[in-house]
Amino acid sequence: MNRIEKTYADLKAAGRAAFNVYLCAGDPDLETTRELIPALEGAGVDMIELGMPFSDPIADGPVIQAAGQRSLERGTTLPKVLDLVAEARAQSEIPIALMTYYNILYKFGVERFVNEASSAGIDGVIVPDLIAEEADELIALARQAGLATIFFVAPTSTDERIEMADRASTGFIYCVSVTGITGARDELPDDLRAYLLHVRSKTSTPIVVGFGVSKREQVRALSEVADGIIVGSAVVREIESASQLPRGELVRKVAAFAGNLAQGVH
After folding, report:
1. Is 224 a catalytic residue?
2. From the candidates 60, 166, 227, 238, which is the catalytic residue?
């Protein structure tokens, strides 16, 4: 049982949902990302989804796309991100899932990636453009290394797709709240609760909802039906707004923002 699986098992026993935050690695720089990881853990965040910047991020909205571009312009690479995680492990045991696109894994080498990610202290991998039917190599290697593999379902997913994602996923199933790309939204779909309850009826794997969540009251409402909630664009936007501050002030400001959102599950 890796950190992701243990966290969700422990929180289920405690009767509450997990609050997860997305960070774009290297935005505004790698050192700031490294300092944010333990700071967010201290603020009440239960898991980090660490995004690997990519030039063509098909699942990402404009806020995260812009963050990825800023990071790439600063020279962020996969080896540097793995080093960042290894360094952060000296200060933090928070579960970390790396979100990356398959082009990066393919070029790096899937087996090499799994081995080096596991050694660095990454606990799971999320690949938005890799469907479960084509993920046998990654799944097999990840199982051997103790990495969780996390696949997506959406409001349009059939029962067959949900069951396929369930078989392929360890750690949790990522439930996309809306059809479309990432981005903070003032209102979430009226039928979101029914969709999440339907997915839950098809699986015993934890279900985690993301895309569009940006407010504490949304986090609180979703914690009633999901095992975890991911907030991404709202946090990335907060980092961008504080990017001209000294690093320590930025880290404190973002941790306070995330801590306020985390009160929705605490």
Report:
1. no
2. 60
Give every CB contact of residue 72 below 8 A, 6+ residues apart in sequence. Answer: 26, 53, 54, 55
pLDDT in tens, 205-224: 999 999 878 889 999 999 99
> Which entry of 27, 41, 49, 227 is annotated as an active-site residue?
49
> Known catalytic residue: 49?
yes
Domains within the chain, CATH numbers bracketed? 17-260 (3.20.20.70)
Here the tokens at position 157 are: 């997913």
Prior bond to 28 cis, omega within 30? yes
What does pTM read for this prediction?
0.94
Q: Are 2 and 147 in contact (CB under 8 A)?
A: yes
SS3 assignment for 235-263:
HHHHHHHCCCCCHHHHHHHHHHHHHHHHC
For residue 167, count CB atoms less than 10 angstroms from its CB and return exposed for 0-12, middle for 13-18, buried for 19 or more. exposed
CA geometry: angle 222, 223, 227, nearest 5 deg: 110
Q: Angle 118-206-186 (CA atoms, 0-180°, nearest 5)?
A: 105
Q: What is the pLDDT of residues 43-63, one digit of tens each?
A: 999 999 999 999 887 777 889
